[in-house]
Amino acid sequence: MSNKILQLANYQQRYSGSYQFTITHELDADFRKYLTRKLAALIPPTVDQHPADAQPLDISLDDIEGDVVAGLSAFTCGTTLTIDLLWVDEPIRGSGIGRRLMQMAEEFARERGCERARISVTSGLPFFVDMSYTLSGTVQQVDFRAGSTHAIYWLTKDLI
To answer: pTM for this one?
Structure first.
């Protein structure tokens, strides 16, 4: 993965002595590919299409060696924050990092004038409901080639 996310960072916040949050407001395709690979077993493949006037928002948590151990990739468009990807490495799950990534994205979205947030997920529904997201839709998706079925959940949250 490129160091572009580190080079373009215009805001950094320390998490602890061995981790650092990095936030970028420019599209980083390599970062999105990295998160997609990490989530490959959990989410169905999606088409990566964003409106022309979308403003990217990527947040990574990097360890002391500079490796990404958690990340969120999102964009804002108009008054809506859309969270595309959220991943936290297994050893640090349950430590509040996913919650902090979501809070940071929502804070930046509010600064950009966003009034609502949305996300679609295939797992982790209780996590998002606990963060005040409301279920707005669900669908069962069948993968005939793999012989599996999974649900996709759409959730929204008012940011104002």
So the answer is: 0.73
